[in-house]
Backbone:
Protein backbone atom coordinates (compact mmCIF):
# COMPACT_ATOMS: atom_id res chain seq x y z
CA UNK A 1 0.00 0.00 0.00
CA UNK A 2 1.26 3.48 -0.74
CA UNK A 3 1.77 6.10 1.93
CA UNK A 4 -1.16 8.30 0.88
CA UNK A 5 -3.76 5.54 0.95
CA UNK A 6 -3.98 4.93 -2.80
CA UNK A 7 -3.86 1.18 -3.11
CA UNK A 8 -5.89 0.57 -6.25
CA UNK A 9 -6.49 2.12 -9.62
CA UNK A 10 -10.09 2.77 -8.55
CA UNK A 11 -8.81 4.90 -5.66
CA UNK A 12 -6.37 6.67 -7.95
CA UNK A 13 -9.09 7.37 -10.54
CA UNK A 14 -11.31 8.81 -7.79
CA UNK A 15 -8.47 11.09 -6.67
CA UNK A 16 -7.85 12.28 -10.24
CA UNK A 17 -11.58 12.85 -10.67
CA UNK A 18 -11.71 14.92 -7.49
CA UNK A 19 -8.60 16.95 -8.25
CA UNK A 20 -9.52 17.71 -11.86
CA UNK A 21 -13.32 17.78 -11.52
CA UNK A 22 -13.60 21.22 -13.09
CA UNK A 23 -12.39 19.70 -16.37
CA UNK A 24 -14.98 16.90 -16.19
CA UNK A 25 -18.16 18.64 -15.01
CA UNK A 26 -19.74 20.06 -18.10
CA UNK A 27 -22.78 19.40 -20.23
CA UNK A 28 -20.62 19.72 -23.29
CA UNK A 29 -17.36 18.05 -24.28
CA UNK A 30 -15.30 16.79 -21.34
CA UNK A 31 -11.62 17.71 -21.44
CA UNK A 32 -10.63 14.71 -19.29
CA UNK A 33 -11.95 11.15 -19.51
CA UNK A 34 -10.97 8.31 -17.18
CA UNK A 35 -10.89 4.62 -18.07
CA UNK A 36 -9.39 1.64 -16.26
CA UNK A 37 -8.16 -0.94 -18.73
CA UNK A 38 -8.37 -4.38 -17.13
CA UNK A 39 -7.75 -6.39 -20.28
CA UNK A 40 -4.53 -7.65 -18.68
CA UNK A 41 -5.39 -8.69 -15.14
CA UNK A 42 -1.72 -8.70 -14.13
CA UNK A 43 -1.17 -5.16 -15.41
CA UNK A 44 -4.28 -2.98 -15.19
CA UNK A 45 -3.85 0.61 -16.35
CA UNK A 46 -5.61 3.87 -15.57
CA UNK A 47 -5.96 5.83 -18.80
CA UNK A 48 -6.49 9.57 -18.45
CA UNK A 49 -7.49 10.93 -21.84
CA UNK A 50 -6.84 14.66 -22.17
CA UNK A 51 -8.41 16.30 -25.18
CA UNK A 52 -8.76 19.88 -26.31
CA UNK A 53 -6.94 23.15 -26.26
CA UNK A 54 -4.11 23.21 -23.71
CA UNK A 55 -3.91 19.41 -23.53
CA UNK A 56 -0.14 19.33 -23.00
CA UNK A 57 -0.24 21.67 -19.99
CA UNK A 58 -3.12 19.77 -18.43
CA UNK A 59 -1.43 16.42 -19.13
CA UNK A 60 1.70 17.76 -17.36
CA UNK A 61 -0.41 18.60 -14.29
CA UNK A 62 -2.14 15.22 -14.33
CA UNK A 63 1.14 13.35 -14.74
CA UNK A 64 2.68 15.26 -11.81
CA UNK A 65 -0.41 14.47 -9.69
CA UNK A 66 -0.23 10.77 -10.58
CA UNK A 67 3.50 10.64 -9.81
CA UNK A 68 2.87 12.25 -6.41
CA UNK A 69 0.50 9.36 -5.74
CA UNK A 70 3.18 6.77 -6.52
CA UNK A 71 1.93 5.85 -9.99
CA UNK A 72 4.22 4.99 -12.85
CA UNK A 73 3.26 7.05 -15.88
CA UNK A 74 3.69 7.00 -19.61
CA UNK A 75 2.22 9.20 -22.34
CA UNK A 76 0.70 8.52 -25.72
CA UNK A 77 0.59 11.50 -28.07
CA UNK A 78 -2.06 11.27 -30.76
CA UNK A 79 -1.95 15.00 -31.61
CA UNK A 80 -1.28 18.31 -29.86
CA UNK A 81 -4.82 18.24 -28.51
CA UNK A 82 -5.16 14.49 -27.90
CA UNK A 83 -2.91 13.02 -25.19
CA UNK A 84 -3.32 9.95 -23.01
CA UNK A 85 -1.53 9.62 -19.68
CA UNK A 86 -1.24 5.96 -18.67
CA UNK A 87 -0.76 5.11 -15.00
CA UNK A 88 0.00 1.86 -13.23
CA UNK A 89 0.62 1.04 -9.60
CA UNK A 90 3.33 -1.32 -8.40
Residues:
Amino acid sequence: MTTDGVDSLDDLAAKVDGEFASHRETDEFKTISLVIDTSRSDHSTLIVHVDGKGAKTLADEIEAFLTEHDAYTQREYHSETDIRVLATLD
Q: What stands out?
A: The mean pLDDT is 86.
